[in-house]
Amino acid sequence: MADLLIQPGRGPGTRYQNIEDAGDTWHWLEQPPADATDGIPYAFIASLGDVGRPAPFLYTVELDIAEADLPAIYEWYEQEHLPMLTACPGCIGGTRYRRLDGGAPNLLAAYRFERPEVNETPEWITARSTPWTERVKPLFRSSRRYVRRLLP
To answer: Which superkingdom heads the taxonomic lineage of this protein's source (predicted)?
Structure first.
């Protein structure tokens, strides 16, 4: 069973809209009901910070990683990346997920922000520019990043 179900377009749940593309809205269903099957299912991996409530902004990072490289990515996320990013001013917390349906990208990180430009601050840029990050970047087969705002 999925811990998170993302339904593009219209649907129930917390809604986040891409701030650069108003037509790109995600319905974010954490702990979806068992009968909810329409959408992209994810399993929880880890979280840090306050992730128990919707935030004004959600920064999503989708990565496609080869199965053989997942242990290295998980180690980097757990030991360095997630702790450093969630410690940045304006970042409320972060959660990591693995896609369950075999689709790509297969990993999702979601950072809850107080304001949309948190990922542009000097602290954030420093946190994502470490030597370890540079070593794992070649393992990213593709990536997508979006800042989304909470809709009423």
So the answer is: Bacteria
State whether residue 4 is helix, strand or coil: strand
Asked if residue 1 has pLDDT above 90, the reply is: no
Q: What is the DSSP letter of 106?
A: -
| pTM: predicted TM-score of the whole model, two decimal places | 0.95
Residue 104 half-sphere exposure, CB side, CA atoms within 13 Å?
8
Q: Collect contacts of 15-18 with beta carbons under 8 A, ≥24 apart.
A: 15/150, 15/151, 16/58, 16/148, 16/149, 16/150, 16/151, 17/148, 17/149, 17/151, 18/146, 18/147, 18/148
Amino acid in position 127: A
Angstrom distance (rounded) from CA 107 to CA 100: 10
CATH classification (class only), 44-150: alpha beta
Q: Can you give the length of the chain in residues?
A: 152
- Mean pLDDT computed over 38-56: 95
